[in-house]
Specification:
Keywords: ATP-binding, Biotin, Ligase, Nucleotide-binding. The protein is of the alpha+beta class. A hairpin with a 2-residue loop joins strand 10 and strand 11. The strands form two sheets. It has a seven-stranded mixed beta sheet, with helices on both faces. Strands 11-10-9-8-12 form a five-stranded antiparallel beta sheet. Helices cover 22% and strands 33% of the residues. Helix 1 packs parallel to helix 4. The structure holds adenosine-5'-triphosphate and biotin. The site of adenosine-5'-triphosphate has 18 residues, from strand 6 and strand 12.
Length: 258
């Protein structure tokens, strides 16, 4: 079933729904048009020719039953500090929306990857523009709802899709758009603490040995979930230390340690 622009429009609390057959990147579109579009506007496409992942990587975006979705949101400059943990909230909203459609085995890998049965099924890329009016966020979400094969030069890790579920893609997108708008509105008021417990229930590595990989460094520990700032908690010896969201990759640690 094709994406239905008017059905998606009806689900929105604010802003405009724009659906394209093909686009370079739904994130790039909203970043280019953020001044003309109202808060809450969403951009979707059936395929992307230059889908963007984090850290300059490519998001594989063929024409299939996948979701390539971006939403525009504005925050005043004073609230910018809360933005770093927003990607965790977005991951949680995705996980809960999928669960509400009957999908089991959804997990989140800190800070913001969405996994299905232990394999990457979706990702989130938040990009910003800052001007005198505040911070303009474009929150991009890619979800593999129906993709039977990938280009292995681009997708160089285990991946999953949800084609086993055959659910209504428009219904999922409507729910996701509505839930995101609702939570983006309340987020500055309730803060991240409001979401911590729900986030932990989807945590893929809770209680497991992990490593945080940064350029030139590996930090090892036992994952203890997150704190009220959205930082990752690692048990290292007798201490529990917190690590902020940055240029880091979280991986299972299969080495045995003393
Ligand atoms: P981390 O943030 O821990 O490094 P990651 O290895 O998943 O996580 P990201 O930058 O978040 O890296 O995501 C980009 C990666 O996602 C790409 O390098 C590719 O391996 C993978 N990828 C690209 N397109 C898809 C897709 N459609 N489905 C699943 N995985 C994809
Ligand atoms: C990642 O895990 O690296 C993040 C992937 C984000 C992909 C989505 S698809 C919709 C939006 N448009 C883009 O170009 N990227 C995001």
């Amino acid at each position: 079933m094709k994406l239905n622009q008017s059905q998606i429009q009806e689900a929105l609390l604010c802003g405009q729904a724009l659906v394209f057959e093909e686009i370079d990147s739904t994130n790039a579109f909203l970043l280019n048009h953020y001044q003309e579009l109202e808060q809450g506007s969403v951009c979707l496409a059936e395929s992307q020719t230059s889908g963007r992942g984090r850290r300059g990587r490519t998001w594989y975006s063929p024409q299939s039953e996948n979701v390539y979705f971006s939403i525009l949101w504005h925050y005043p400059k004073e609230e910018v500090e809360q933005v770093s943990s927003l990607s965790l909230v977005v991951a949680l909203i995705i996980a809960e929306s999928l669960q509400a459609q009957g999908v089991k085995d959804i997990q989140i890998k800190w800070p913001n990857d969405v996994y299905f049965q232990g394999k990457k099924m979706g990702g989130i890329l938040i990009e910003t523009k800052v001007d005198k009016n505040g911070v303009h966020l474009v929150i991009g979400i890619g979800l593999n709802l129906g993709m039977t094969k990938v280009d292995e030069k681009i997708v160089n890790q285990a991946w999953a899709d949800l084609s086993a579920y055959h659910f209504d893609r428009n219904a999922l997108v409507c729910r996701l758009a509505y839930e995101l708008q609702k939570n983006l509105k309340i987020y500055p008021l309730v803060g991240f603490a409001h979401y911590v417990e729900r986030w932990q229930s989807f945590d893929i590595f809770h209680g497991q040995a992990v490593k945080l990989v940064t350029e030139g460094q590996e930090i090892h520990g036992i994952s203890q979930g997150i704190n009220e700032q959205g930082e990752l908690l690692l048990k290292q010896g007798n201490e529990i230390n917190a690590f902020g969201i940055g240029e880091m990759s979280l991986r299972p640690n299969t080495q045995t340690e003393n």
